[in-house]
Amino acid sequence: MNLNPQRVAGSWDEGFTLDRHVQSSEYLGENEYGHPQFETTRTELGELLFRLKYRSDQAAVAPIAQAAADFVKKWNPHVDVIVPVPPSKARQIQPLVQITEKVGGLLHLPVETTSVRKVKAMPELKNLGHSDRVDAVAGAHAVDHQAFVGRRVLLLDDLYQTGATLNAIGRLLKESGGASSVFALALTRARS
């Protein structure tokens, strides 16, 4: 898979996004219900993630996880455990958890899905600006006290827009969870 990794700064020791989510999006007008319609072209990774999250295409899990695992092997941050960002939307099957568990298997690393959790309801973040996102995620997550003492954590997310959620959880992992290092990896990033 052709990727375009980009370094991202934040409350972590080092972080990357693997590729853009969308290559282009052209406004087509409104449908009969007055909803805007777009012709969207996604990157290969963005398309796979879209198919998994919004079309429940389980065949997308393996290539997404393989791309992430291959990148982590080259990057080599020497992590001890992988933690997915808790989902913002309730789904029967959580796509990011599936991807994270597959990445963990490919890298022979444990995946911790219960020690970082959402503790307050949040609006869906994709339509909020940066300051509204920061406000929305403030106090929204908790980390089990000292759950990651001395461990090097890879924090995995599906989409990086402003980094508000990753920053909040990265700080929690170090301050409350006792992590010695936190590395952030988002599969895709928003264009803006």
Task: Give a written overview of the molecule.
With 192 residues, the protein is α/β, with parallel strands linked by helices. It has one domain (6-28, 36-189): Rossmann fold (3-Layer(aba) Sandwich), CATH 3.40.50. Helix content is 31%, strand content 28%. The protein has 5 helices and 9 strands; from the N terminus they run ββββααβαβαββαβ. It has helices spanning 44-55, 61-75, 95-107, 130-137, 164-175; strands spanning 6-7, 14-20, 22-30, 36-42, 81-84, 116-118, 141-143, 152-160, 181-189. The chain has a 5-stranded mixed beta sheet. A hairpin with a 5-residue loop joins β3 and β4 (36-42). α1 (44-55) packs across α2 (61-75) and α2 packs across α3 (95-107). The radius of gyration is 17 Å and the shape is globular. The two termini are 23 Å apart.
CATH architecture: 3-Layer(aba) Sandwich
**Major sheet: arrangement of strands:** 1-2-9-8-5
Helix residue percentage: 25-40%
Return the domain count.
1
Strand proportion, as a percent range, falls in: 25-35%
Quickly name the level 1 CATH class.
Answer: Alpha Beta
Characterize the largest beta sheet: strand count, sense, and whether it forms a barrel.
5 strands, mixed
Shape: globular
How many DSSP H or I helices?
5
